[in-house]
Amino acid sequence: MSTRLVIDAARCTGHGRCYAMAPDLLSDDEEGFVAQRGSDEVDVPAGLLGQADEAEQACPERAVRVLRSSAPSAGRSRPS
Ligand code: SF4
Ligand 1 pocket, 25 CB below 6 A? Predict the structure, then answer.
């Protein structure tokens, strides 16, 4: 199972709660926004799942999403 964090740049208004709750995954930029907004997804190591969930719950703009995937993305077949 893999877990990733995604930050919606359009929703982020720079409250700073996400990187306060997940300092090992996220950081701030010079303007106080989360530096990883709008960038590629952030891989979440197993030991940091708690921080990822807390960051998602802390964002008042609902800009942080934790994506969990139990199946590998490559080679998956689609129903027709
Ligand atoms: S808590 Fe939400 S609004 Fe604030 S910096 Fe993080 S993503 Fe942006």
Answer: no
